[in-house]
Amino acid sequence: MGELFRSEEMTLAQLFLQSEAAYCCVSELGEIGMVQFRDLNPDVNVFQRKFVNEVRRCEEMDRKLRFVEKEIKKANIQIVDTGENPEVPSPRDMIDMEATFEKLENELKEINTNQEALKKNFLELTELKHILRRTQHNFLLVQSSFVFCFRLTSGLITKIIGRERIPTFERMLWRVCRGNVFLRQAEIEDPLEDPTLVHKSVFIIFFQGDQLKNRVKKICEGFRATLYPCPETPQERKEMLAGVNARIDDLQMVLNQTEDHRQRVLQAAAKTVRVWFIKVRKMKAIYHTLNLCNIDVTQKCLIAEVWCPVSDMDSIQFALRRGTEKSGSTVPSILNRMQTNQTPPTYNKTSKFTSGFQSIVDAYGIGSYREMNPAPYTIITFPFLFAVMFGDLGHGVLMTSAALYLVLRETRLIAQKSDNEMFNMVFAGRYIILLMGIFSMYTGLIYNDCFSKSLNIFGSGWSVRPMFDSKRGGNWTFDTLKGSAALQLDPAVDGVFSGPYPIGIDPIWNIAINKLSFLNSFKMKMSVILGVSHMLFGVTLSLFNHLYFQKPLNIYLGFIPEILFMACLFGYLVILVFYKWVSYNVHISKDAPSLLIAFINMFLFNYSDTTNKPLYRGQMAIQIILIVIALACVPCMLIVKTLVLRRQHMWKKHLFNFGDVAVHQAIHTIEYCLGCISNTASYLRLWALSLAHAQLSEVLWKMVMHIGLSSKSIGGFVLLAIVFYFFAVLTVAILLIMEGLSAFLHALRLHWVEFQNKFYCGQGFKFLPFTFESILEGRSED
């Protein structure tokens, strides 16, 4: 259990790997993911390292596979992903893999080249077919009439041009030729693939003389129009059309066969491309890791230095033996622990349940080596503080249901490998959301709040019947009820108040006029109690850090003054809250003094205030003692500890910079004393956001759902269905997503700033083991 509350104990180890066994040993270490390799060649250029050629060959294979993958996706073929994790290929297999990928790439490129040439030829023939058809039917009468009237025709050009460029082309042709051409056009109904689907038109141009012919051709070339020869006689056009149709049919058959062959090649590749990717990237990772090692003078042994957990040394040794046996080497690999003064990396073992909470802590800062890990406590405190702000039974049920769906179907959802970043972020925090929903259901039950409505499960503890009974002292009548907009229930009258509600807040407060005032007082005090308790717990955790790192000075002149300062001031305030709740009943509650005024008078040493009576006997003496103790703690942290550090500085012969230490201690003391006040006030956000969420839920109910429930006609059911739809959408969008995100961020701030700063430095660096899992998942930073 010690590893759960503190980072793993790490050690620096030296690896001696035989050259023939190094590849297999690193492969086995990558599978278990328990060692972090150090770069022993920081001054050597990347291109000058021993295995740079192997890395380049792996990159070239990866490039070819990406080309194949791109072609598969372009053909809309599903890539098969069976979840298989193949073993790393041996170095001898690299030649066969390179040959396979080279052959596949060349075959696909050749197919693509031939297919493009065939499609280009097919397009030209298709355009020529449309030209022949149009000139045969649509332009025949025009040509005959033109020749008959002028008898000056000396040339004819037919061409294909994009439909969107027709007006510009016509204007240019008319201006350059000065109107001495005759042009007719017809649209091609079917779009042509050139290379995408485009709409084109057929033109036929009649002109006189070679000079106009050259001008027309230059204009056509400028507009990138395709020119085709067109016979002048109908018979020649008919014969040419028949030949074109025959060639088109032959080309279509060849194109179909080429596409079928391409599909077969890609479908076969789609079955194994993922496995190929895994093998190539594993090989590349191994050679990249081998480049971090040193090679001894005999060139027969590789030397590596790794960080690894002490508890996993046996597993690492076993992996090295397995790799040595797989390589066929007879010389075993050696793993030696090294003594070092370097700070090890921080490694916190996590599961799928705790990883989300550890990520919350690591986002603030990676913990220093072996200091207390806040994540185990965050598992409870984070969702609980979130729920205090978000407390609603109905909303908690919705959030729990959504998270439960992600948890129960996690295996299937992981296999789908969604690319949606937002969904992946929510899915990664599914256990956090689940606990937030469960705790929200609990706090919603305490607040007795379900979609802004109260649940009357056990019956209210208040009754108005005794107020009508004159024998028992009641003075209300039915006329009084009818003529009064509001009346106050007096708990001092016998029978009006039978006792507190069994759990949570009495449902009668939901219809009370002073509901908001009551909840304000209750939730404000609750926020202070939770905040002070949370901070005192954080200060207490610092004691375990001081004990572990054997720093008695930090205990006597750090922890003890800090805990006394906070306990004497704000811990005392919490005790006063509980004392007032317990000591004053319904009969004497009107005489209860104000805690806020009493707390202010405590700091001002003002005990002559007749408007605010003491809470208990001896209050003045106790409060003076507490103030004196709290004030004495400040110079103890600021001056005494600094003087002790100075003496240590003198004894240790300037082993550390005393000026920096003194300034740091002064800043820490001032920050802590002021932070106790500001941090306590910061926990009032629990009260503010809780009230805001409850009021927003109530406003949404009254403005939306109340409309559907107010109708009593036959069409009211349809209206209720429509209104409920909008109510559900607004509830999810505003109260669940927006308000939930707001409460999440505030709970995050309370843990980072108010809780963790009491004991958590967060100045370490993360343990990044060499593992194939992170490489295949695309986490390049690992």
Largest sheet: 5 strands, antiparallel
Derived from helix and strand composition plus strand pairing, the structural class reads alpha+beta
Oligomer type: single chain
Radius of gyration: 41 Å
- The 3D shape can be described as flat
Mean pLDDT across all amino acids = 84
How many helices? 25
Through-space gap between termini = 27 Å
Q: Strand portion, in percent?
A: 5-15%
Low-confidence stretches: 139-159
- The total domain count is 5
Count of beta strands: 11
| Range of helix content | 55-70%
Summarize the structure.
The protein is 61% helix and 7% strand.
General description of the model:
By secondary structure, this protein is α+β, with helices and mostly antiparallel strands. It contains 25 helices and eleven strands. It has helices at residues 2-5, 19-32, 52-74, 93-137, 140-150, 166-176, 210-222, 234-270, 273-290, 313-327, 355-364, 375-390, 393-408, 410-416, 421-428, 430-447, 478-482, 515-548, 552-583, 595-604, 619-651, 658-682, 685-710, 716-755, 772-776; strands at 10-18, 36-37, 155-162, 182-187, 192-193, 197-198, 200-207, 226-228, 294-295, 301-309, 334-338. The strands form three sheets. Strands 1, 2, 9, 10 and 11 form a five-stranded antiparallel sheet that branches. The chain has a four-stranded antiparallel sheet with strand order 4-7-3-8, with helices on both faces. Strands 5-6 form a two-stranded antiparallel ribbon. Helix 11 crosses helix 12 and helix 19 runs antiparallel to helix 21. The protein starts with a helix and ends in a 6-residue tail after the last helix.
